[in-house]
Amino acid sequence: MLSHVPSLRYGCLWITLLFISGASCYPPGPIQARLATRGSRVGALQFRQGIVKEKYDNQEKRRISNIMGEIEAILDDKHGLRSSNDSNDVEFDGVLEGDLVINERQAKWMLQAFNTRQKRKLIDNEELRWNISTPIPYLFNPEDFNENEKGIIRWAINHWEQETCIRFKDMGPVVYYTDYILFYKGKGCSSEVGRNGQTQISLNVICISKQIVAHEIGHSLGFWHEQARQDRDDYLDVLWENIQPGKTYNFLTHQTITNDVPYDMSSLMHYLGTDFSKTYPDMLTLKSRDGFLQQVMGGAEKLSFYDAKTANIEYCKDSCRNTKLRRPCEHDSYQDPNDCYSCKCPEGFGGTYCNTAAFSVGGADFAADDRHHMQWR
Ligand SMILES: [Zn+2]
Question: Is residue 314 annotated as a catalytic residue, yes or no?
Fold first, then answer.
């Protein structure tokens, strides 16, 4: 049974677990040891009904749980939380870090990286990544969502499209691709990490918000939580003693897609500072080294500049290969894959090359060097 009820302002895990008692928030089913050929089209005649497949059976789920138990025992021992290394103490409810549906292979990757402290890349992002030469197909589980809910899901999809070169395509009632995203109304908010055949995103009615859906889509694209980055300890302290017993495995660092983008406390993929605390929401589990950023942590309402940059480096490297800018992009900006003739600027900067300060007028941002023609940003 879950005794911990995290409740982030935005995101998934907090709400994910709200109404779940012991059961995972996704349907069990077999682990796909071999991932399907990425993004491959299997012939127009091979239709697949848009219904949720069973992906994990109980045995596989137990094996993943045992791996989490091993991680938990090591972490607890390392931080002096328990004298016993009894892996049975772990409270693994089927989702890692509150909303990640991982397969056995991913769980093994984590344990291996943790045990060996290898710096080399263990997780091959290529396996998780989608082929975006064509839009990523998606569909809604039949009769799961009303039009209002679909509208919010589409907003989140559109948000990713506006910020990156990634495109999605509503397949209607059937899909004829091997790899596609299925939105369904499960018991909580969760997503698989990366492309995985029928990549399932569960959205309970309590998860239908722009932030949560955009966050879950991020996972489906292969992104993990920001605080799982291997450099997170340079920016925050994990208060291990404040974490609920049996839940420390959720605070493991592991290999994530970072693309050398700076750690970002304002990432849409970041936990709140109080998640998994013994007395949520009064107790911190993540304490920012920079006190000012404590309130920023986990409160994102949309993709941050660095979220989009990470995704664009991962997926959109070739988008502007035929367009060369006259000058380099400045202030950490980069060639905008949705507008190859300009740079994509962080907040506060504007102009074609993000070399000028932006200012706001009536809620709209203008670049300082655009004042004469008031170019909208
Ligand atoms: Zn998440």
Answer: no
